[in-house]
Amino acid sequence: MYVCLCYGVTDRKIREAAENGISSMRQLGKELGVGRQCGRCACTAKEILRESRSPDYLALANMLAQPA
Fold it and tell me: Is 35 helix (H, G, I), strand (E, B) or coil?
């Protein structure tokens, strides 16, 4: 789903950024522009970023990345 319409950023892009080491909204804004224009996406983007950095999400992502 689109989170930031101003820059066309999806939840998937935010999760990928988190997997690549982005850990704060400041970094996310610099990297993808999220929250830099109108700011309506900031709360949702922050929640997705926090969820993506949680141990449960990381464990699931690692499990799904394993070959069957």
Answer: coil
